[in-house]
């Protein structure tokens, strides 16, 4: 009899061992046990199966972070459905593409967004649209209330898809990243060992759950170890400071740590019970690392991952955590630095970072040619990041070949914003870049060439982008220039634009 590789089958051991124990406590003071979430996710699984949703079908979800949303994710794992989370900030034009490309069998959204999503779903031929609100209300909860909560976990193989998350490249065309049960299972197991998670841990979970960090890394560590969570629907420094004394682990993006340091109530006493602070999703500035250690005595543990791979490296829990590095490769993960011809480079030489391992995604959804382009003949994934590896195996990320801007831990792909701006009347062309920002890590800046003087102003650009794209993609500043700098091949020299705009927020 073959072993069930469904990720939930792995989690089920902890659900059984800790059924009466608290899994999470919300900011509102509501406690949920492992059994509560186990039964709720089973009900949702059985209802979706009764609705006709089959293994391998995509379930598109655009809801705010909530306990009910967590249950829905687990329900999708249990039923063998492919969980397709969408940033709650996405607007109509973005959603239309995602629904058309993913071809889900069902869409679940916040009730306030149903008027937007319903016609999009109808145009895409999606039969089922349900609502799910953060107060555990909505048509999905109502409809599934009488479904059986008897245990159910369908058999899945390692290569079967568990989730479909979308990224994008410099072309601006979003790509569906296919993550398998095997990908997520291998990474969860590796991280539990690397960060020594046990059932005595309590994680401060203030991350969103529509991407890898909050959904697979944080929740995966908790549900693989029988730990518990202090569950917040978003990051607010005062609430985090009040909750930290009862927690042993915090995961966050650099912005979270900057905001804690900006609050005078964040002291060493607040962090006394915490055994490790983990940071990722964006580069952590060395000055933040040093200031945090000075204030609390803790050296932040920085790691490196991406949507396509989950986690690849981690500074050690026991051992030297080096500022400016993301640590050595995790067990089972292979990392190398190569030159433009694909030849491996020696230690401390900057080149293209490639990764291979059971954590690496299965490929791009319905894009076999792009998948082939991004993998080498010997199975390494070209991350698009520039990096180097020192003689001790510590990896440093020195740049992003794909020009991605990471603002507040969220990825912004310049081409997508540029296309939006270039379509505006009065705009000749634009270039979107990221510049240093004390709070966000990087801020989105639009450098715009107008067709004529005063053809459009900064407020007009920002207002128009807000109508089409999620708020985190909207430029924080618009800079007007007579022309964009170009090299001999007519390519825009964004490095020169960054040099010019580098001090906008300092």
Characterise this structure:
With 506 residues, the chain is an alpha/beta fold. Among the domains are: 1-25 and 33-156, ANL, N-terminal domain (Rossmann fold, 3-Layer(aba) Sandwich), CATH 3.40.50.12780; 195-299, Rossmann fold (3-Layer(aba) Sandwich), CATH 3.40.50; 405-501, ANL, C-terminal domain (GMP Synthetase, Chain A, domain 3, 2-Layer Sandwich). 31% of the residues lie in helices and 25% in strands. It has 15 helices and 24 strands. The protein has helices at 7-17, 34-51, 67-79, 92-102, 114-123, 139-144, 181-194, 212-225, 237-243, 254-261, 286-296, 368-374, 414-422, 458-468, 494-501, and strands spanning 22-26, 31-33, 58-62, 82-85, 106-109, 128-131, 161-168, 174-180, 202-205, 228-231, 249-252, 276-279, 301-306, 310-314, 334-338, 351-356, 363-364, 381-389, 395-400, 405-407, 410-412, 427-437, 441-450, 477-480. The strands form 6 sheets. An 8-stranded mixed sheet has the order 2-1-10-9-11-12-13-14. Helix 1 crosses helix 8. The termini are far apart. The model has no long low-confidence stretch (mean pLDDT 94).
Question: Tags for this entry?
Answer:
Rossmann fold, 506 residues, eight-stranded mixed β-sheet, single chain, GMP Synthetase, Chain A, domain 3, alpha/beta
Topology record:
Blueprint: H1 7-17, E1 22-26, E2 31-33, H2 34-51, E3 58-62, H3 67-79, E4 82-85, H4 92-102, E5 106-109, H5 114-123, E6 128-131, H6 139-144, E7 161-168, E8 174-180, H7 181-194, E9 202-205, H8 212-225, E10 228-231, H9 237-243, E11 249-252, H10 254-261, E12 276-279, H11 286-296, E13 301-306, E14 310-314, E15 334-338, E16 351-356, E17 363-364, H12 368-374, E18 381-389, E19 395-400, E20 405-407, E21 410-412, H13 414-422, E22 427-437, E23 441-450, H14 458-468, E24 477-480, H15 494-501
Parallel strand pairs: 1-10, 3-4, 3-5, 5-6, 9-10, 9-11, 11-12, 12-13, 23-24
Antiparallel strand pairs: 1-2, 7-8, 8-17, 13-14, 15-16, 16-18, 18-19, 20-21, 22-23
